[in-house]
Write a structure and sequence with these properties.
The protein contains 16 helices and 34 strands. It is an alpha/beta fold and 785 residues long. The strands form 6 sheets. An 8-stranded parallel barrel has the order 8-9-12-13-14-15-16-18, surrounded by 4 helices. It has a 7-stranded mixed beta sheet with strand order 1-7-5-6-4-2-3. Strands 19, 20, 22, 23, 24, 25 and 27 form a 7-stranded antiparallel beta sheet that branches.
Amino acid sequence: MLAAIAVTTAATAVPLGLTAAHAAWPTAERPGQAADGTNSRPAVIPALQEWTGGRGTHRISAASRVVTGGTGAKDLLPLARQITEEIAEITGVRLAAPRTITGAPRGGEILLRRDPGARHERGQERYEEEGYSLEVTEGTVTVTAPAYSGVYYGTRSLLQILLQHDERSRLPVGTAEDWPNYRLRGFMLDVGRRYFTPGFIRDYLGFMGWFKLNDLQLHLNDNEIHAPEGDWSRAYDAFRLRSEKPEWDGLAAEDGSYSRADWDSFEDTAARHAVQLTPEIDAPAHARSFVRFRPDLGLNGGNSDHLDLENPETTAFVKKVFDEFTPWFRSPEVHYGADEYTGAEELYRGFFNTMAEHLRSLGKHPRAWGSLTHMAGGAGGYDRDVTIHSWNNGWYGPQAAKADGYEIVNTNDSLLYIVPFADYYHGHGLDGRYLYGSWEPHVFPGNQSLQPGDPQLRGAMSAVWNDLVHATYTQQDVHGLVQKTFGILAQKMWSGAAAQMPYADFTTALRRAADGPGMTTIRPTLPEPDDLAFQVKATASSKTAGTSAAHATDGDPLTRWTSDRENGPWLAVDLGEPHEIARVSLDWSGDHGRAYDIEVSDDGRTWRTVVSRDDRDRPGRDELTFPATTVRHVRLKGREGKKIRYGLWSLQVLAAPDLARDKKITASSSETSGLVPENANDGDPTTRWASQYTDDQWLAVDLGGTHRVRRVVLDWEAAAGRDYDIQISADGTVWTTVVERRGRQEAGVDTVDFTEPRDAAHVRMKGLARQTDYGYSLWTFEVHA
């Protein structure tokens, strides 16, 4: 590498909350420039708090090296080795081995540096604990932070900037100053009612660190909500920690539990990724596992999931459980549940206070679910040195907890709970559009919101509760529900409204960021809208070690297919059935093609070319469009005329575009503030619009100009239309009916083809009669040319 080149970075910093930053946000393809020619703020999730742009870029190459310096330089070497591996995973470039240095970095070096005295006027305490500075020149990159967590977070930003760049090799010159708005940015996973493998837990710790979330709470014991026919001996329950001591034999769940070695691996992984692993052992309710183990300690003679707190042996037993397992826990905090108990209030109060004090005697700060309004009508007589998770306004809302002097975590059920595949509590995932547009950690429903930055509000935590213990979904299915809003929650917990970009653009960047490097168990679940090749069967002419054809269609931007050196390498995908396609997107690695065709086939044997490329001169994305055609098989075929190696991060086959996607959409009504018209054309098949409960309702989209329209696709929820018209308009005022639908008896997809294409600037579904007593509800509303 050349020696470092002095670069002037004279640009205005972009602080939190200035609307000017919106226009400066670049696309996910390549660094943008501000009006004065300096580099715009790069795309990072969560968004950088401040950015001062310079001119030019820093290039990562095989001659680059990660080095460590400053206080505890040797202690940062494991992180330097980790980021070296992660850069190789993201870019395909293998750097030189890390080392420590004592002075300034040389050209091509990426310096990780702790400076305990580093301060920031706006970031203050949050900067001291988790903030960092990322300085990029054309010659060097420096990450400086007061603490390890800040250095780690700075490396996450560096990696995301590389990943968002089209060629994955350059960083824009400039300086970022970054810190979180809130101390606790968390996620809770109920492993008590569903076992998640150790690999999944370790992946999630890395996933959290990728988005700068810092608290994983594992809910370690729970049971079925209702006993089958009132018989609790038949109810599912599980306690997930497995002691090797014989006295605890029979307590751990037979269908999966964690040994001390498993837990140590979790703690080691958490430390690497700057995450606190907070254990939760729940009592005196949700305690069927303890009652099964000791029936004499349960209410109703043991036919219960509640502990009998009137029995003096009960609290002694729970203390013994914590005595046994608390030495496993490196977290300074332990959550002891204490929610939804239906026994006597004075006994509950004694348990609440006794266990809080006992955890402090074990060197841990106690956390608990807020239940004091429901249980006692207030906090009189209750220990106040407990962090309260405000999960339900009725049980104990934030205003009451604040008045009582508690430290609060926002874990509100109506906004932040997922119960996978249930018909309550966001069974198909949280409402991303609402969270992005209207939520931050201080926001609670029902006029219970606190002030932003309230000193008693520690932060927020979303949660997955596996209530449906007999359902057949997998841990990967759960990841699919969580993944789509994880980055949105991280954004709102870290820098709030600082993203200042449209929701659709943010979700595009979120898909590109994926899960982060180093994943071994979880897989991406967020395809590009209209990508028909996502996780379909792929075959290739050849492959090199560590790559496969499937990597080009798995949706993971960190896996790739690379061919051997050969004449005319090819990669083909089978879409499973014929689809109308009009685009193919290739994301080339360093082994990019220069001359190649996109071919299509009906049977996978006879191919015809739909578009050719003759002059590709760099890696990165290549978007190829062609007249719409209906086919089942699509192939990339090289034709350089010499032996060459092809490498692709991804191959996407894109359906003919949906003209309604993210366009202005209106409706006659919305059933609730969360079931808005925008949910029907946001590209997310798990969000929906729903009308009021009357027949005469409509949904209309403004296409933003006149288009030749020939098809409308409606995906009805159970509250579907029976009789409805598809109408078009030139001005949104005068409507013409082009198709009448009558007597429809089912929900699901209705593809409405016109008898002939029609010119339209507006398209509307005009409801005439419903199938149910509810209104009209659509998951998606698409318009095709």
